[in-house]
C-alpha cells in the first residue's frame, strides 16, 4: 500500500513539473501581440507613403498644367500631358498594389487576432487546470508528509530533511547529493521509512 502511495506522489510531482513548463503559451501570446503591433506599424507607414505620393503627384499635375500654356513649342503640352498620364497610371498601379498589401495586412491582422484569442483561451484553460491540479497536489503532498513523517529542508544544495517515527519518537536526518539517481534516492528514502 505504501508503494502505491509513493507512485501517486511521483505522478503528482510529474504533473507539477509539466505545469511549470507551460510558460511557452504565455510567450506565444506575447509573440502574437508583437506581430500585431508590427503589422499595424507597417500599415501606418504605407499609408503615410501613399499620402505623400498623392501630394507629390498633385503638385506635379499643377506644375504641368501651368507649364502647358502656349508660348511653348507645338506639341509640348501634349507631351507633358502624356507624361503626366503615365505618372498617374503608375501612381494608380502603385495605389492598387498598396491596396492589395493593405488587404493582405488586414487578413494577417485578422488571422493574428484569431490566433491571439485562441492562445488567450488556451492560457485561461491552462490557468484553471493548473490551479485545480496545484490544489490537489498540495493536498497529496500534505497527506504524504503526514503519513511518512518526512520533513523537507528546501533551499539547500542537497536533498535533505528528516524522517520521524511516531511510535519510537526517533528523528532520523537524511542528506543526499542532488545528482543521485532517482531510483537510488527512492530506495534510500524507502529504507529510512
UniProtKB/TrEMBL annotation:
<dbReference type="GO" id="GO:0005634">
    <property type="term" value="C:nucleus"/>
</dbReference>
<feature type="coiled-coil region">
    <location>
        <begin position="47"/>
        <end position="115"/>
    </location>
</feature>
<dbReference type="GO" id="GO:0000776">
    <property type="term" value="C:kinetochore"/>
</dbReference>
<keyword id="KW-0158">Chromosome</keyword>
<keyword id="KW-0498">Mitosis</keyword>
<keyword id="KW-0137">Centromere</keyword>
<dbReference type="GO" id="GO:0051301">
    <property type="term" value="P:cell division"/>
</dbReference>
<keyword id="KW-0132">Cell division</keyword>
<keyword id="KW-0131">Cell cycle</keyword>
<comment type="function">
    <text>Acts as a component of the essential kinetochore-associated NDC80 complex, which is required for chromosome segregation and spindle checkpoint activity.</text>
</comment>
<dbReference type="InterPro" id="IPR013252">
    <property type="entry name" value="Ndc80_Spc24"/>
</dbReference>
<keyword id="KW-0995">Kinetochore</keyword>
<comment type="subunit">
    <text>Component of the NDC80 complex.</text>
</comment>
<keyword id="KW-0175">Coiled coil</keyword>
<keyword id="KW-0539">Nucleus</keyword>
<protein>
    <recommendedName>
        <fullName>Kinetochore protein Spc24</fullName>
    </recommendedName>
</protein>
<dbReference type="Pfam" id="PF08286">
    <property type="entry name" value="Spc24"/>
</dbReference>
<comment type="similarity">
    <text>Belongs to the SPC24 family.</text>
</comment>
Amino acid at each position: 500500500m505504501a508503494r502505491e502511495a509513493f507512485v501517486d506522489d511521483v505522478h503528482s510531482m510529474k504533473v507539477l513539473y509539466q505545469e511549470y513548463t507551460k510558460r511557452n503559451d504565455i510567450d506565444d501570446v506575447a509573440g502574437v501581440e508583437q506581430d500585431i503591433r508590427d503589422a499595424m506599424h507597417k500599415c501606418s507607414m504605407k499609408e503615410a507613403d501613399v499620402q505623400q505620393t498623392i501630394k507629390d503627384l498633385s503638385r506635379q499635375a499643377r506644375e504641368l498644367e501651368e507649364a502647358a500654356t502656349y508660348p511653348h513649342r507645338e506639341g509640348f503640352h501634349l507631351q507633358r500631358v502624356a507624361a503626366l498620364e503615365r505618372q498617374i497610371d503608375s501612381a494608380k498601379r502603385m495605389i492598387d498594389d498598396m491596396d492589395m498589401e493593405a488587404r493582405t495586412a488586414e487578413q494577417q491582422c485578422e488571422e493574428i487576432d484569431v490566433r491571439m484569442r485562441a492562445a488567450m483561451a488556451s492560457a485561461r484553460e491552462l490557468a484553471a487546470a493548473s490551479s485545480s491540479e496545484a490544489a490537489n497536489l498540495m493536498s497529496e503532498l500534505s497527506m504524504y508528509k503526514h503519513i511518512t513523517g518526512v520533513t523537507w529542508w528546501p533551499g539547500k544544495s542537497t536533498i535533505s530533511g528528516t524522517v520521524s517515527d511516531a511510535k519510537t519518537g526517533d528523528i532520523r536526518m537524511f542528506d543526499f547529493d542532488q545528482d543521485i539517481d532517482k531510483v537510488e534516492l527512492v530506495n534510500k528514502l524507502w529504507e529510512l521509512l
